[in-house]
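User: I need a structural model of DUF4145 domain-containing protein from Pseudomonas viciae for a docking pre-check later this week. Nothing fancy, just the predicted structure tokens so I can convert them on my end. Input:
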Amino acid sequence: MVRTIKKDKTAGEKLKLICAECRIPQNHVVLTSMEDCIDESNFESQKSYQIVQCLNCEALCFRSEYDDSESHAYDMETGEDFHWTAVDIFPHRTAGRFKIKDSFLLPPIVRKAYDELVDAMNAGQTILAGLGIRVVLESICVDLKAEGDNLFKKINDLLVKGAITKSDVSILHKLRSLGNTAAHEAKPSSPEQLDLAMNVLEHLLLGTYLHPRLADTVFKT
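Assistant: Understood. Predicted structure tokens for DUF4145 domain-containing protein:
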């Protein structure tokens, strides 16, 4: 086996990526890269590690790209073989799901659970995302000191405490059930279910934590 490390082989290349700051596809440039190349008698592979910058807002991200001589698959619809390349970008992002603005103001226990939920959503990990919905709900209950020996009772106690409305309770129990399915049956939720659940959950985070805190700052007398 022969291993070769190449520096800046792809430096200067232009790429079209979703920018985590602009939140839309933007042109990016590879600032620097390291290529790890392996050459064996019947196998070749290359993994590229890149620091990439958005040409619009100058935000930085990390991108990795891997392919090898066996990276091909069969398309049953066209009847043709095709070569594929595995690409990963960090921080993870998609065109449709970004963290809510000012999420850094959330209580630490809630923020950590929410951050990991967004990562699971953007990585396409539907089972973990469904479980993450429940974990965020649990973290909110812990932060607001909801009483009860299970999540069902804790959500109802949030209503008693005036932290949520009656309509919120009904919706949150649906989210709880979604998390139960992921936790106990290892069943992935549909993209539509997860997207709606995230919208509801983020609405709760905004109303419970962010809007009151921002209002105290913006309308400070």
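Before docking, keep this in mind: The helical segments are 108-122, 126-143, 151-160, 166-185, 191-218.
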